[in-house]
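>> Question from a student workshop board

For tomorrow's exercise we were told to take the sequence and the ligand below, predict the bound structure, and bring the output to class. My setup keeps failing. Could a helper post the expected result so I can at least see what it should look like? The ligand is adenosine-5'-triphosphate.
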Amino acid sequence: MSRYITRLRVRRTYRWHGAPVGEDRKLKRLYHESMTISVEGRTENTTVSLGQYILIEGEDDDNPFVGQLLKLYNDDSGKKKTAVVQWYVRMCEIPQTKRKLLCRDPHPQEIFYYLDHSCDNEVDAETILSPVQIEYVSPEASFPEGKSKDILFVKLLWDTKTFRALSSDRMQPPLSPKSPPPSSRGPRARVLPTPDPTVMKRAVSGAVTWGSMSTGKINSEAESLHSASKLSAAKALSARRRSRATSGPHVRKKLDLCSPSKNMTRDDVLEEILDEPKGAGKTLTSKLNTSPTGRISISIRLTPLKEPISPAAQENDEESKTGTPSRRKVSTALKEPTLTALAEEDHEDSPVQTDATPRSKRKAAQVVSSRIRKQLNLLKNKVDLQSDGEDGEDDDDCFLPAKIDLQSSSDEDAEAKIDSEDELVVKRRRGSRTPRSTEKTCTSARTPRKTPNKTTAPATPRTPRHATPSIPSRSAPARKPGNVLEEARARLHVSSVPESLPCREQEFQDIYNFVESKVIDGTGGCMYISGVPGTGKTATVHEVIRSLHLASEQDEIPQFRFIEINGMKMTDPHQAYVQILQKLTDQKATPDHAAALLEKRFSAPAPKKETTVLLVDELDLLWTRKQNVMYNLFDWPTRRNARLVVLTIANTMDLPERIMINRVASRLGLTRMSFQPYTFKQLQQIITSRLNRVKAFEEDALQLVSRKVAALSGDARRCLDICRRATEICEHSAGQQKGSGLVGMSHVMETLDEMFSSSYITAIRCASLQEQLFLRAVIAEFRRLGLEEATFQQVFVQHQALCRVEGLQPASVSEGLAVCQRLGSCRLLLLEGSRLDLLLRIRLNVSQDDVLYALKAD
Ligand code: ATP
Ligand code: MG
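>> Workshop helper replied:
Here is what the output should look like for this input. Compare the format with yours to find the bug.
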């Protein structure tokens, strides 16, 4: 069991805690100081603030990633919350071969400061799980004993090559050399309010890093976490506060200016904070406006209040009543169960990111996490939407002026309103018809709107925020199968992933080699995979990708990016561009714009680009009149700088030829692979291997299914469906009949009858001999062409041949056309063409299986 509650099990909601504290207009970012995490089913929320140590969701539930929160921001769309972190790594994250460099066994709670400037330090903020406590242990000292298992210890740093002693300085924000220590300003002891706009403004071109931590309840005591800190500011505060420290609860804070200050020194800033006990919060907002580029980060880590708030905190309460938005943050923060301290390091100067194993692993895990998160958020928002509908009045409340919020004397009220305000911003961003303009109003406003503007409020009904349907997540674990038949049924379900793919070893190997070689060489290419339905094309490609991912995780091959689109899941073929772009860059665009951006992306040189493997399933459905979508999919991988491997899957064999009319097909150098229908033996093997020693079928029953399906189509999906249905029938009849209790011939026969008893099958059985022959001819021609469409002329040739085989007089063209027309009028065939002539296009309106079954059963 995992010690940490990960998102797979609980739903989390992330909200900014309070208003933004800074803005980068160039990058269109709004910086925040803290974020509230609500966990479904828990009444208490958690706040993570800058400087705190946090657990970040990864692949391993037991060992989430560890980092220190350096920045929090959202983009101008407001949808994406990003966190910048300083990574810490566990021993298990260090490559196996390098672990021995430690020359001792690691402490079970030991982590290492991760020093790798090439490592991507930006993560999706919604993968943050919770705060965590990290204790610095000096390299010579031994690890403390008897401490909680949840505390992590850091002693050394890992720079991807060696373990080195970690100086506690590294865990502290860098100090501006110009700034004299704040201690010289004399001691001041009071709880620092939440980031003060006054400070922000005065640190116009500087940046403030300000954090606090608490291991107890709030009072005016503050202390630096890292006693060895060389930061004067931190020292000053620490010394002051330590001298007042009692055994009771305390707050620890420290402060630093990280970037070169122009107009103001850090000490001035510090003094501002300390000197302005009451008006601080008030001026914060206004001053913040004037320092949009100030990089600000704050950390406040507090434990839940058990005792009355200290006088200092109460003083802040008073501030809130005077209309200080920042006060609300404090009161909210008081409720947050959080721990540990702050340290900030300026990572602005980090060199360009390059590939690194931990980074890519983290990235991969982040991708998975963010997918899960998106799904959960979708669900969450559905619930929101419902409640919107129920209490529409509440929404108006969201527009309550900040003043009213601030007049609330109760912390709970304040918190609730902050939350609703935050949510409102999110709602506006998500639900607005004109997101851009609304977003700007919401995010750029430093002071909350005073009153809702009823006249300008949109009169039109709201558009649903999420039109995309999603499958609700399972709240309880799936029930374990109770008996053999139930287990067999579960194993035979087409959606269950088979443990192995028998009979596709060669195809697997070929596709694996193809993609692997491209990934290793850093080149691109395209493979065209065709075959009739149910021959394991999609399953094999997925298995290949899974194996390649494993290989890349073990550093056997370079990292690559896998994305998948499916023609079946698109309303319009041009959506392919939109989906590819979105999956690659998380960017939304119109199909035309997306096509242009992709064109640019795959043409531009980028030496450090990782290979992208794109799977295009059900390619047949991406057919457009100009065939440009398919053409591009075949063409992009041929670009020199694309590093793109495209795997296309289709049912039609000659699709590329048909697309490439007038274009140079040979230049594309397609690698082709054809999946043949399964033989009866192969189908039998597939079923047996899927059942995996679950003895649910009688031998001859299994043979019958396999033979039937192999004779019709060789479709494994159909075979699995029949077996599953036969199992169901057997289960239902188990009570009534005596027998082995296994699926037998009678169950299979009943299934076959049931599955092939449509009116079409009856119509085929009742058709005249010539009509039946014509249907046979249609199928023969389809198989010859590898297509699902043929002209009357082509079918007619087959029909005549079949007549001769059957010893019948070959029909004349007009007789043939009459037969074809009759089959068309009873909708067994779909006829396309303005005239009834040789070029009439013929398609089947029933599956080939059904036709063959109907004809064979005679
Ligand atoms: P379509 O063209 O209709 O998309 P496909 O060729 O992609 O069909 P898959 O979806 O890969 O077919 O396979 C259909 C079902 O049959 C899946 O449930 C798959 O797990 C199963 N299957 C196919 N081949 C095998 C195999 N060799 N071993 C085990 N299961 C298989
Ligand atoms: Mg498929």
